[in-house]
Amino acid sequence: MSSKAKRVLPTRPEPPSVEQILADVRGTHPTDPVFLLPAEPRQDHGPSPGSPSPGRQEAAAEERERLYRQSRSYVEMNQRLQESRERLRERREELRRAGAALERGISEMRQKAF
Q1: Nearest by Cα to 70 from 38, 32, 22, 26
Q2: How far apart are the C-alpha atoms of 101 and 78, rounded to whole Å?
Q3: CA-based angle 64:69:73, to the nearest 5?
Q4: Residues ≥6 apart with Cβ < 8 Å to 57
Q5: Which of the residues 5, 8, 23, 83 has an alpha carbon 20 to 30 A from that of 73?
Q6: Average model confidence (pLDDT) for the chain?
Q7: Using 50, 70 and 90 to split pLDDT, how confident is the model at 87?
Q8: Cα dist. 86→55, 82, 89, 98, 100 in Å?
Q9: CA 30, CA 12: separation in Å to the nearest integer?
Q10: Contact, 63 vs 40, CB < 8 A?
Q11: In which band, very low, low, confident or very high, does the pLDDT at 107 lie, cut at 50, 70 and 90?
Q12: What average pLDDT does range 1-20 have in this prediction?
């Protein structure tokens, strides 16, 4: 029977707490790009000199819609990832318990054999 060296993987750090996340958000500069929204075009009823043409306004509206859909997709994916992480955490715990039970069984068999 050959013996394999067990690989010990480093433990993952726990995700940040809500308090840590809020502290990070509060500590950011107001001009942080993450918190800046694209400029909204003015909503007046007449074209003013230098204002974007109706075609450009449509393009801007389409871009806002695209960004909105992209944001929604990101939020949904993030939720799915969090759910998957929780399922993996549960499976890891099940596997850990199964491994411990297997180790106990092997140990008992060795004691009976010798």
Answers
A1: 38
A2: 35
A3: 145
A4: 41
A5: 23
A6: 83
A7: very high
A8: 47, 6, 5, 18, 21
A9: 32
A10: no
A11: very high
A12: 78
